[in-house]
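name: query_chain
kind: protein
chains: 1
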Amino acid sequence: MAIGAANITSIFTNGLVSSLLWTSNCRSLVTPATLVRTLASSHAKIHRTNLTWCSWNSHNSNNYRSYSCESSAASEVAPSVTTTSSSNGYPEYGRLLPCPPQNSPPRVEHLVVSEGGPVLEYISKALDLPPLFVADLIHFGAVHYALVCPEPPPSATPEQIRVYKAVTAPSVLHMRRSIKGKTFREAQKTFRITWIDEFVERGMYLRVHVHPKRFPRCYEIDWKSRIIAVTESYVILDKPAATSVGGTTDNIEESCATFATRALGLTTPLMTTHQIDNCTEGCVVLARTKEYSSVFHGKIREKKVKKLYLALAAAPVPTGVITHYMRPVNIAPRLISEEFVKGWQLCQLDVLECRKVPWPNALIEKKYGIVDCGWPSKDFAYECKINLLTGRTHQVF
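structure:
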């Protein structure tokens, strides 16, 4: 078996995608994206990061422990932390908003609370971070909790395993009123902390994304110009590339839903009804009411919603159904094979048409950050209209 890029993937490597969407009994919501606007999605590829290893770190000698996840691909924009001390003894830093220009490696801290109290105060002391910085992280949705600590990773030391067993021992859990009536699995479910004064009790688990993923393009977009339609039930947005539709695990602030809500001056936040990849631009539907959100989800379940994508390829692509298989691991690189592999996910797409278009000139390449990846020809590109028959993440690439 030869594991490698399938034909469609090798052709679309570093290709660019935009989406079109409509529901049955409705007219098309957007016209095909132009080549230039499709090219904007290439900039999003710069912001991918893959967690490659985890290590546990002890911050003191009592029951509090944490571990940090780091990456060799440090390309996320993150808050800067300097060595200059402020009057309160904490280091000064650049605020999360607006988005700072420099990059920092991803940092995720996993804590077991050793002493109850307000969450902001506890995290500030445990991680030696300025309170205002922690408040910004909570505002971003970068802090999560669970009543009971999840099982530590394989890299944990015997001492850290001992601590985990100590705080999750049945005799200890039996004394905690907050988990009465809950199963062990239910108590390990994580939730986002949204209030800086929320109380955290001893034994509770905290996950702090100290360097959340950032989406600086949110601040460059004229969001009102991207609104296609506004009704009492929903808003249709032409999503820009390099943005998240509804936010990520560590960042719900820099999202299309948030910025579109502000652009329209709405008092009730818009709700996501479906997703398209961060690197993709195109039509998305944002619900204004819970009722319409349910209606739209019903249309998706009943297969009354159809998405079409425009992908820019460096070589011509044959029309018709293309099939390959992808390793079911949600980290990069995405390994794929043209041959069947047991346990791997089936990926199918239907190339409806492929048309030849002029290659963008040097000014457009520079404006949209298009990197020369060794394409065989730079005279022409090929714009393909695609219907995804399966919905695997990044299955086209």
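note: The CA atoms of residues 110 and 207 lie 5 Å apart.
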